[in-house]
Amino acid sequence: MLPEIVLFCSLFYLPASPQAVVSDFSSFRCPNPAELQNYSRLLATELPRFLVLSTAELAGLQILDVSTQEAGSNAFRIRIRLPNNRCYLVTVVTTGGRLVITAVTPIVCPLRAAC
């Protein structure tokens, strides 16, 4: 029994791998004009596939704020509000120079936009 307890406790003292830091993101901030343009274009073309909505239903989409990956800056998180007052966290990565949506997660809408 003692060896099992020692083994179990040793798992908590394993050093973190460098890949563990990769998922750390900066705090959310207001996007700059270039980001607004790029993210708006991406969301208009790819978001309908994730949410099964028409382009018309996304017409009033609002980008609330963005967050970038601390290490490497090849991933982004975008918080958005749809015209139906539903909010989502959209995870985006840069692959081969292209922005690609990897996940869309429902979130609670903030009372007001930070930007």
If you had to describe this structure to a student in words, what would you say it looks like?
- By secondary structure, the chain is an alpha+beta fold.
- The protein has a single domain (26-107), classed as Nuclear Transport Factor 2, Chain: A (Roll).
- The chain contains 2 helices and 4 strands, in the order H-H-E-E-E-E.
- The protein has helices at 2-10, 33-51, and strands spanning 62-68, 75-81, 87-95, 98-107.
- The radius of gyration is 19 Å and the shape is globular.
- The model is unreliable at 5-22 (pLDDT under 50).
Which short descriptors sum up this protein?
about 120 residues; alpha+beta; Nuclear Transport Factor 2, Chain: A; 4-stranded antiparallel beta sheet; 2 helices; 4 strands; about 25% helix; signal
